[in-house]
Amino acid sequence: MRPEPLDAESIVSATEEVLRRHGPEKATVLDVARLLGVSHGSVYRHFPSKAALREAVIRRWLDEVEALATAARGDDSAPPERLRRLLTTVFAAKWAKAKDDPELFATFQKLVAGYSTVCSAHTAFVLEQIRAIVADGIDEGEFAAGEPETLARAVLDATCRFHDPLYAADWRATAELEAQAEAVVSLVLHGLCAR
Amino acid sequence: MRPEPLDAESIVSATEEVLRRHGPEKATVLDVARLLGVSHGSVYRHFPSKAALREAVIRRWLDEVEALATAARGDDSAPPERLRRLLTTVFAAKWAKAKDDPELFATFQKLVAGYSTVCSAHTAFVLEQIRAIVADGIDEGEFAAGEPETLARAVLDATCRFHDPLYAADWRATAELEAQAEAVVSLVLHGLCAR
DNA sequence: GAAATGACAGATAACAATAATTGTCATTCA
DNA sequence: TGAATGACAATTATTGTTATCTGTCATTTC
């Protein structure tokens, strides 16, 4: 029995803690219940499955990333600058997580590999952010004419090496990585711009 | 005892056959020796290890891919056209192998994951082909000025979703994939071109 | 005597038996 | 009465055992 009533938020926090300590391979629902001082049945009252628990943890982190991305965008500058900031912010958030919180990042990687809706929703979010900026750029005449959906998808695809967790193993040497990301982003922005 | 003397080439062919039948997880050196009708010790006379055997199989396939790429390049056309042909030829070769020869492709994926020199040499080859075309394009004034090495690397990175075996799981829907590859290649070519 | 063999030690994989975890739900508690 | 529990069946992981494979090398074969 615990003093305060059990709520979803504290279960998510406990899950995060357990994942960080044991990693996605070893972390169990029983570990989470133990940390909270409740039975595992109580955890299942708030979450339908172990997978849902992990998705909630990752969704919370992705919410932060998306908030960061929205903030970094800054609607005052020109589309190329906005797109560059959006991309580099998303890259940096992923790189930092992979480096500083490897177990949670590994959890994220597993969810992506398992086609979790949380992850595809995040991709859809980033894609939509790119699309909006591209559409703005085309309207303002800075970017060449084209279908914003197709172009946004091309921008996302062209930069996958820097944001897709599938490539996290290559995110070791930060200086080199930054230079390579910069080269691709510049190439893509140049490709978008009207001449 | 077999009629003809045992040579490296037939060992590679037998290994290819065994890999195709059993897949990289199950294929053993003993299987190869059995298929050849020799003892596994004889195989080790020609190849130092199981890994070397698999590398030889993949190297033989990559040699074909590289020959295809060289042929498709065609030195008569303009750099943008040449680069497009080089890229689409390499993409198509990988897509076809993944689809039509999945066990050998899985072997390739394992080698890539294991940082095999055979695979990094192939990457170096493609990178150099791109670099040469980019350098030509800059010389001819079709491409904007820049460091050919950096630009070539950016082109390779920007197209990784279409040639890196890490992404093979996404190579299912061919029509969609071709359209996405086309969008990225066009964006990249537009990015390279001088204005 | 060059090529092939097969016995061998160490490493790896397959297997079966056992233990732990997941998810459900009738019961208990406050 | 609504939240929490823990017994339970089904699934999944772990362990210890056995079998197979890898790579070497002294011996054999032609």
Q: What structural class is derived from the secondary structure elements of chain A?
A: mainly alpha
As for the number of domains of chain A, it is 2
Mean pLDDT figure of chain A: 96
Largest interface: A-B, 24 and 24 residues
- Rg of chain A (C-alpha, Å): 19 Å
Biggest sheet statistics of chain A: none
Count of strand segments of chain A: 0
Q: What proportion of the residues of chain A is helical, as a percent range?
A: over 70%
Number of helical regions of chain A: 10
**Unreliable stretches of chain A:** none
Task: Kindly provide the name of the CATH class of the largest domain in chain A.
Answer: Mainly Alpha
The CATH topology of the largest domain in chain A comes to: Tetracycline Repressor, domain 2
CATH architecture of the largest domain in chain A: Orthogonal Bundle
Task: Give the overall shape of chain A, derived from the CA principal axes.
Answer: elongated
Q: What would CATH call the homologous superfamily of the largest domain in chain A?
A: Tetracycline Repressor, domain 2
How far apart are the termini of chain A?
Answer: 68 Å
Would you mind describing this structure in some detail?
Two copies of one chain form a homodimer. With 195 residues, chain A is an all-alpha fold. Chain A has ten helices and no strands. Chain A folds into two domains: 8-46, Orthogonal Bundle (Arc Repressor Mutant, subunit A); 58-192, Orthogonal Bundle (Tetracycline Repressor, domain 2). The first copy, chain A, has helices spanning 8-26, 29-36, 40-46, 50-73, 79-100, 102-113, 117-139, 148-158, 160-163, 174-192. In chain A, helix 5 packs across helix 6. The longest helix of chain A has 24 residues, at 50-73. The structure holds a DNA duplex (30 and 30 nucleotides).
